[in-house]
Design goal:
The protein has eleven helices and 15 strands. It has about 425 residues and is α+β, with helices and mostly antiparallel strands. It has a domain at about 15-215: Ribosomal Protein S5, domain 2 (2-Layer Sandwich), CATH 3.30.230. The longest helix has 26 residues, at about 290-315. It binds 2-deoxy-2-fluoro-alpha-D-galactopyranose. Its EC number is 2.7.1.6.
Length: about 425
């Protein structure tokens, strides 16, 4: 059964693959290869754009970017990916809001955002990408791509951002800008921060309101636990109206309650805050959100932040095994109050629990993508088999899976 999991590339193999693709495409050596991981979030969902807390870990699965700065054609950006059809050429002068479209928006958007942030024109380069981060699985394949490219551009253009966590936070910000402005996905920033700042053996506690972070030791193996990640393979797309609508709703609620962000509210504030929500709200796209829905959205955000605190407290005491009910409550809140789950995600959560998982929840933005289950190590195979059988009975596609261990942030690879 273990051979049936999505494996990360073996050490050295990802860099070798990206470098080989680079040579085959451009007929020259790259200046180097940089890599950055996908992530899975333990708890704290849809809180990062609300000034709240979240708790991601970096996956061992990474995206590899072989990069070379070109001297001659300083407006030309050349890109190729092992996961895409044909090489592309993009004129840097044209990169900007919502252009280009498709996968090249992410790397070219990072160059655009770094240019804006630093005043150095980050143009004139060739890129070859390979990746083992599952694509479209809600495991941040786009952030892994942005961050791998960002690290490479940082070095070959001598920007000096990646040396310490403060600089990396700025680099993450440029990757977020690329995603928000050029790719047009109004995401919150957890994924890029995880990809650039996580440490092996730790979860990253991000306080997006205070702008602070803490590395929380997470020794699941010491407790005999494993984190099973199940990719439902249900279509998942963040560049759609639902994610942006949730974000816009939260911003409208915060304004009505009289706070800057919903993360300023504690669970005790909920009754008064809910009472302040009177009358429907109309979002910029014309969607009308009724009062009852506003109150449920508010309750999700505030209770989810409290669940992050509770999981961190348990992890600090080596009692992660007791976090199951908190993960279950997170799933229920995302399903019922925030309404970002889907039948496939609900089925992973319920089937995993039936088979003995300690707790299970959807992870990431939702509307498809992946769910996680906290499982005793020797139950991983049984839980996965049970989930797959339930999917077969429901007529859903066979889900993919991996076992997540907290890995490290992006870095330069030893040359392949
Ligand atoms: C996606 C987004 F990219 C993140 O910023 C975050 O909002 C997440 O959904 C939900 O917690 O991964």
């Amino acid at each position: 059964m273990r051979g049936d999991l999505i494996e990360a590339f073996a050490p050295g193999a990802g860099a070798a693959r990206a470098a080989a693709l680079f040579r085959a495409t451009y007929g020259i050596e790259p200046d180097g290869v940089w890599s950055s991981p996908g992530r899975v979030n333990l708890v704290g969902e849809h809180t990062d754009y609300n000034g709240g807390l979240c708790l991601p870990i970096a996956l061992p699965h990474r995206t590899y970017a072989a990069l070379r700065r070109t001297e001659q054609d300083t407006d030309g950006l050349e890109l190729v990916s092992a996961q895409e059809q044909a090489p592309s050429r993009v004129a840097f002068a044209r990169v900007g809001p919502l252009w280009p479209t498709g996968w090249t928006a992410y790397p070219t958007g990072v160059a655009w955002a770094l240019t804006n942030a630093t005043g150095t024109t980050v143009a004139g380069w060739q890129l070859a990408v390979d990746s083992c981060v599952p694509y479209g699985a809600g495991l941040s394949s786009s952030a892994a791509l942005e961050c791998a490219v960002g690290l490479g551009l940082d070095e070959v253009f001598g920007l000096g951002l990646s040396a310490d966590d403060e600089g990396r936070a700025l680099l993450a910000q440029a990757c977020i800008e690329a995603e928000n402005v050029v790719a047009g996905a109004a995401t919150g920033g957890m994924d890029q921060s995880a990809s650039l700042l996580c440490r092996p053996g730790h979860a990253l506690l991000l306080d997006t309101g205070a702008g602070t972070r803490r590395h929380v030791p997470l020794d699941m193996a010491a407790e005999g636990l494993a984190l099973l990640v199940v990719d439902t393979r249900a279509p998942h797309q963040l560049v759609d109206g639902q994610y942006a609508a949730r974000r816009a709703t939260c911003e409208a609620i915060a304004a009505r309650v009289g706070v800057r962000v919903l993360g300023e509210l504690a669970p005790d504030d909920l009754p008064a805050a809910a009472a302040a929500l009177v009358g429907p709200v109309t979002l910029p796209d014309g969607t009308v959100v009724d009062v009852e829905t506003q109150r449920r959205r508010l309750r999700h955000v505030v209770t989810e932040i409290a669940r992050v605190r509770a999981v961190v407290a348990l992890a600090a005491q080596g009692r992660l095994a007791e976090a199951g009910p908190l993960l279950d409550a997170s799933h229920a809140s995302l399903r019922d109050d925030y309404e970002v789950s889907c039948p496939e995600l609900d089925l992973v959560a319920s089937a995993a629990r039936e088979a003995g998982a300690l707790g299970a929840r959807m992870t990431g933005g939702g509307f498809g993508g992946s769910a996680i289950a906290l499982v005793e190590q020797d139950r991983v195979d049984d839980v996965l088999a049970h989930v797959r059988a339930a999917f077969a009975r429901a007529g859903f596609a066979r889900p993919d899976a991996l076992v997540a261990t907290p890995a490290g942030a992006g870095n330069k690879e030893e040359q392949a």
